Amino acid sequence: MTNGWTDVANADVVLVMGGNPAENHPVGFRFVMEAKRVRKAKLVTIDPRFNRTAAVSDIYVPIRAGTDIAFLGGLIHYAITHDLYQHEYVKLHTNASFLIREGFSFEDGFFSGWDENKKAYDKSSWNYELDAAGYAKVDPAMEHPRSVFQLMKHHYSRYTPEMVASICGCSAADFEKAAAIICSTGKPDRQGTVLYALGWTQHSHSVQLIHTAAMLQLMLGNIGMPGGGVNAQRGHSNIQGATDMGAWNMLPGYLRLPRANQQTLADYLKETTPRALRPDSMNYWSNTPKFVVSLLKAYYGDKATKQNNFAYDFLPKLGEADNYSWGYLFDHMYAGQIEGMISFGMNPVANGPNTPKMLAALSKLKWLIVAECFETETASFWKARELAEKYYSTALDSSGINTEVFLLPAACFAEKDGAFVNSSRWAQWKNVAVEPPGQAWRDQDIIARLFLKIRELYEKEGGKAPEPLLNMAWTWQNPASPSLSEVSREINGRDAAGKQLASFAALADDGSTACGNWVYTGSFTEAGNMMARRGQEDPTGLGLYPNWAWNWPANRRILYNRASADATGKPWDASRAPLRWTGTNWTGDVADYKADAAPGDFGAFIMLPEGVAKLYASDFVEGPFPEHYEPVESPVENILHPKVSSNPLAKIFRTDRDPIGSAAEFPYIGTTYRLTEHFHYWTKNIAGTSELQPHFFVEVPEALAKTKNIRSGDMVRVRSARGAVEGRAMVTKRMRGLQVSGKTVYQIGLPIHWGFIGRVTGPLVNNLSPSVVDPNSGTPEYKGFLVNIEKI
Amino acid sequence: MIEAFIKAISATPGKPAGVSRRTDTVAKMIDTTTCIGCKACEVACQEWNNQQVTFGNFEGTYQTMPDLAHNFWNLIKFNETESEIGTPLWLMSKYQCMHCVDPGCLKACPAPGAIVQYTNGIVDFNHDACIGCGYCMTGCPFDVPKMNPATNKVHKCTLCTDRVSVGLEPACIKACPTNCLSFGTREDLIRKAEDRVSTLQSDGFRNAGIYNPPGVGGTHVVYVLAHADQPEAYGLPKDPHIPWTVALWKGPLKWIGNVLLIGGILGTFFHYVRYGPQRDE
């Protein structure tokens, strides 16, 4: 979240789209209800299903799964044509005035630079037009035909209410009703927030979808404002923390993992440290060398010296074409290229798309370690055929599987301390409630013992490239059981004297500081564990609670808060000002700016080379402006450009286990989602929650059920090109046929949560979903794929 | 049982001792317009009361089970319907014992002391005295009390009298994330409900209103409904009354019975006075 849960209470309009907070974040939803009750905020829900959030909304508009970019693009068009955007904000705080090089175009579904052979873009025509000093040229009037504003206006001129209606399947009148409410926040004194979740992230064009939302919020002047922002509701208690600590292509703190061509630290830093694109850009990422060197010092301690480039050579490097995100990982595994896997705190067989392929992939492993507090489908993948023959008749039975599986009993969340980082980016420290039962160990004990044993083996037997492991700093009091306080102190970082750092401003690139993740510097200082704080003071009255836990970065509660004021530092909305310029410094929230720099010194978006926010962003692979592309499996053609129907860069895996279905055989749209009653694939092991919803079910629109002679409670089978699920039908008025390009399209609701192991069991809905992923994030397309349904 | 706080007691004549040491009565307010059907209240109730878990059948709805059960005292009812203009409505409301001011269960109960009404308004069952006759089930116009066939005892929500008596709010109230549920004195909550209704009415819900049915003397569970003209859409009876059979039995029939009983005794007495003891011939 750019803002935070408590801040939602400051909103005048709450747009819920691609999420269902009443269902999945009921505790956070209290702040939506508070906004409604106290501020009389309007709640707008856009979703394929009339869901729990829709039930308490002021307006609900149905939408076809996977068409959100069309809807949001339509809102941008609406804001421009009805002159509802916040002119001064857009001019001052976005790149609307930047000029793009000559040669940039968008035609028939492709941006300029498309290479049909490589199936990729040459992005050079997407760049800014630069002046002699290397800065982007601007037209403050935003009237130049190659200014971002004019290009954007032109790009979305196709997204009329009628076009939105025929793509999304809603009525143009309903769209306009919602648009009027949402765009009413384009005034300085009205703020609107956007709450989204996996309904946006799980598409083959998901990153661009969220980009569209950011563009809309920038146009309406809602970024950096209390009651505004683009707010991702995180689904697991620490998924935000897990993201902050790295991924397959990221080191902690959003530092890029080196590529093979970056053979020296200098090469790496040169390519990853951005250059300012405007004279007044603070370009905070210019500090990248300090973050990287401090991280290397945390990893390798005394072994990281100036002479050896701070042990840069020990870091793994990615090859040109390497990709280890989810879909690729299991694709490599299915191809027999992976020997073993350690699965911690996750259940890939249940979570991943195309379960039959997952099962086949796992059976090619030599070994599999699962550390969990329950037996999971992953730990028991070899029993799938035995336990659910009707779904996995083509899977190997256990006698044909040679994978050696180790199920390690692990402690659950209440049995360990540490911090959860929630959607609001609050790192909240928790204590141990009960000791782990039986032989269960805490994760850090399992990992530490694995590390020590593997290091011992490398010491004894040698092996390929043992240096990274042999030289790793492992200075915990008890090497076999690091305390999480010790780990947190290392993440925060310390100086040469061993003193805990108070701020990442103190990080250095000369090896004098060590820091495990620069965005967390300040979380565990000489004053103690800031994450354990529970102060309830609210000096601004905006619900920022600066003394409650610790908010990364720098305990800042609202990101981009400098944008809440104009060029002279005057707040756009005096009643909701997170920052005030006193003439010498900024007070209120921790400024997302230099605390004592005058309002005109820098652009408000200090992390970006532009110094302003990007409406136009060439960072993504499929274009600088988001465009509506159909899901890879769609019942209709893209009416904007039928020849380029789905995202041309969507990654579609093409093994014998990756069939793609046709609308002729699978005429309906399947979409997956979660229920309040359950947490992921966990609580099917818990009696108390299983009692609330013991059965898998399939939500079927009333009109479709009628044609198929399906009544509520009947057993139905839902099939896709990948597999099938069977369950009871829930025939409902809450899902309806949508009119899309002149034909009626039905959607079918498929809740997750069940599997072949647990106190209550049912089919894994990912038997149906395709191995199709977003090219930027690698997230699978769980929302919107083709299925058929029959009564059995 | 805290006798000093008892207001009424089943099948026991006369006023209970120690009446009206406390005058404040407690209540729950359920603002259905802010209920999101999250079932936190259901879980809290199950956990606090240490209920035995049962997995029900699929009934084609999000509702946990079709009706309250002897081991499930707090149920959110999910009702799918449509507005006048055909848009979907999904009405959710929590259902449990209403703790009537004039409780039909207590009226119907023939077992002395099995049902009591405390001065704070809570209606509670005393299972030691319950004889399992099920008359309370007939007497309840809300169909709340449920029999456990294994023990032959009847169960329902206690309004967490164990928590309330030590100054805590009921478990369901504590668990509610959206402030849909509140707990306090009945007077305060009715005022709060009235405020909420007037806000709703000014927001365009013309038929918003309070559900506090007079047929049972009012209730200690008060609802705010956006569509108060149709409480049935929320699974609430439109105009609940204590069934006439119970009213008759405990009202005129009881009086007639008493007259007949006294008449019989008097008749026996006068017969004795007039004719003397029966003698063997």
Task: Explain what the structure shows.
The complex is a heterodimer of chains A (792) and B (281). Chain A has 792 residues and is α/β, with parallel strands linked by helices. Among the domains of chain A are: 6-96 and 156-235, Dimethylsulfoxide Reductase, domain 2; 642-791, Barwin-like endoglucanases, CATH 2.40.40. Chain A contains 22 helices and 31 strands. Chain A has a 6-stranded mixed sheet with strand order 24-26-25-31-23-29. Chain A has a 5-stranded parallel sheet with strand order 3-2-1-8-9. In chain A, helix 4 (68-81) crosses helix 8 (172-183), helix 4 (68-81) packs parallel to helix 10 (206-219) and helix 7 (161-168) packs across helix 8 (172-183). The longest helix of chain A is centred in the middle third of the chain and has 19 residues, at 443-461. The two termini of chain A are 44 Å apart. The mean pLDDT of chain A is 97. In chain B, strands 9-2-11-10 form a 4-stranded mixed sheet, with helices on one face. Chain B has a 3-stranded antiparallel sheet with strand order 1-5-6, with no helix packed on it. In chain B, strands 3-4 form a two-stranded antiparallel ribbon. The N and C termini of chain B lie far apart (57 Å). The longest helix of chain B is centred in the last third of the chain and has 24 residues, at 252-275. Chain B is built from 8 helices and 11 strands. Chain B is elongated and about 85 Å long. Chain B is α+β, with helices and mostly antiparallel strands. Chain B has 2 domains: 3-28 and 35-187, Alpha-Beta Plaits (2-Layer Sandwich); 251-281. The interface between A and B is large, with 42 and 37 residues.
